[in-house]
Design goal:
Blueprint (H helix, E strand, L loop, with lengths): L14 H7 L19 H34 L6 E14 L4 E14 L4 E5 L4 E6 L2 E6 L4 E3 L3 E14 L2 H13 L2 E15 L2 E16 L10 E11 L1
Antiparallel strand pairs: 1-2, 2-7, 3-6, 3-8, 4-5, 4-8, 8-9, 9-10
Amino acid sequence: MEESPPKPTNIMHSDNHQTSHRPPPYRRHVPRYHTKAGGGGGGHCCLKCICICYIFLCFFIVVLLSLAYFIVTFYRPKIPSYKVSDFNVHVFNVKPDFSLYTEFIVIVESNNPNENIDFIYGRGSSVSVLYNDSMLCAGKIPNFRQPPMNVTDMSILLSGVSEFGSGMQEALMQNRHSGKIPLLVAVKVPVTVVIGGLALRKINVLVNCSLVVDDLSPNKKVGILSSNYTYGATL
């Protein structure tokens, strides 16, 4: 008995099956970057510091303004006044070398009109007398503390040697003949203001007094014909 040959088996391939046998395509994965939790904290902290600094600055300004308002309303500070009340000539001597030696005594009146404020006049002061921009003599204000509601006369001895050239001689002779001699008294004195027992920062008080006197003869009464004052202050 003869065996019949095996029947061919028909296998149908579909497009779907063909693609399923291919290796999967290469997929490129885009890397993901994760933001750190504390990455943006630096700028935030700086902003906080700046805000805190501004708050403290505003608070400090408010405290200063409040203190100034309290001082102005409670103590009512007033500026002291100064004036040259007397001017005396002890020596006015022309030497053989045409230099001029002078000794003046100037009385400066200091008036403190405040009720609760003291003034301390410290070291480092200077008082000068000038004629035609040339210094004739100089001296210092004595150190003292001026209490409230007080008027003090400061007697200041001034002495010095200056050049007495022909130009100054001629100008001085003309002024003496007219009876009007212009002088400048320049004062610089360190002053400490004391309010309620608290000493504040020291300041330099500047006073320029333009005087016109009638004579500079020694041991004679010198009359002050006019005076003009300018004031200033530096730290």
